[in-house]
Every structure is written in C-alpha cells, then in structure tokens.
Specification:
The chain contains 6 helices and 9 strands. The protein is an alpha+beta fold. The protein is globular. The two termini are about 30 Å apart.
C-alpha cells in the first residue's frame, strides 16, 4: 500500500519506517511497535503549509482525503479526561454532544494548546492519532475509518502521514463513533 497513493498530489511519499526522522518521537515509537507500521507512508512538507487548507491547495491533495485530529478535554468535577477525535477535514467533531457524552463529562472543549502539545509530545498543527497516550480514546468518524487513503498529521508540522482508515481503526484505543462528524 505504501507505493501508490492517489491522494498524494505533488508529495513524494516514502515508507514511514524508512524516515522516522520525519515524525515526532511518540509517533516513531508507535510506528516501530505496530504490526501495521509498514502500511504508513510519510512525506516531507513545508511546515508553514501544515494547516489543512493551505496544505491541500499547495500540494494538490484533495481536501476530502485529509483528516484532522483534535484533542478534546472533558471535565466532570475535578476529573479531566482527554480524547483524540479524527474527522475528515470537510467536517467538524461534535465536541459538545457526542464527544462530551463519550467522555462522561459535564463540559467538553478543545484542549488548550499547551496541554495538547505537552501531553501528546507533538507539535500543535501536527497532532496525529498515532502515538498518543494509551489511556486516551481515539474516536474516529465512520467516514475516516472507511477511507481507503487519508492524509493526517505526523506529530510535526514538517511532514504528513498517508494511511488507510482501516489501519487507523486498529490503533490502540480506536473506536468508530457514529455521529462524531457533522
């Protein structure tokens, strides 16, 4: 699967395990330990073009094949629970409904940037579901889980991972959640 990516646009994807220098350390550790690690490709990009819309426009990768990973903090009393939500770039995660209920929280919101970065060990704008803390649920929209090819973050702003939704659905803590994306 690493060889041919119809969504790559002008990117030059290579097997991720061959270029672990292009991903954040927690992502590299996860890829090394995964049975499906060989089914990931990585492509170097200009870090100033990491945001989805600019990335897609510049590299010719379709917006509907990009998935965004957001870190959500759910709070009930003094307890904060974190989750990663992965939805297509053409949609938004239902943080205040579906995610809040899944986290059994009274209030849910996007985690503060400093918390998301320090807890994930990844750069803001490059956070990916690969290599996140093991106690975090990784909530995937059905559209993400069924996608044959996706472009996602790599943990840094200077590259992107290419992977299938099927592989993402096998990540530790992954759950396909109906109604996650709106």
């Amino acid at each position: 699967m690493v060889g041919v990516w119809t969504i790559a646009g002008t990117l030059t994807p290579v097997p991720a395990l061959d270029r672990l220098d292009l991903v954040a350390e927690p992502v590299a550790a996860a890829l090394r330990s995964m049975v499906d690690g060989a089914r990931f490709a990585v492509a170097e990009i200009d870090p100033t073009l990491a945001d989805t819309a600019e990335f897609c426009a510049h590299y010719g990768s379709p917006l509907e094949a990009s998935a965004n990973c957001v870190v959500v903090a759910g709070k009930r009393g003094d307890t904060i629970r974190y989750a990663a939500c992965v939805v297509l770039a053409t949609t938004r995660a239902d943080v205040n409904g579906v995610v809040r209920r899944r986290l059994d929280a009274r209030k849910a919101s996007f985690a503060p940037m400093d918390d998301a970065v320090s807890l994930s060990g990844m750069e803001y704008g490059g956070i990916t579901p690969v290599g996140l803390p093991e106690d975090w649920p990784v909530l995937l929209s059905p559209e993400v889980a069924s996608a044959p090819e996706l472009v996602i973050g790599s943990g840094i702003r200077g590259s992107k991972l290419l992977v299938s939704g099927e592989v993402l659905a096998k990540l530790p803590g992954a759950e396909v959640v109906e109604g996650l994306a709106r």
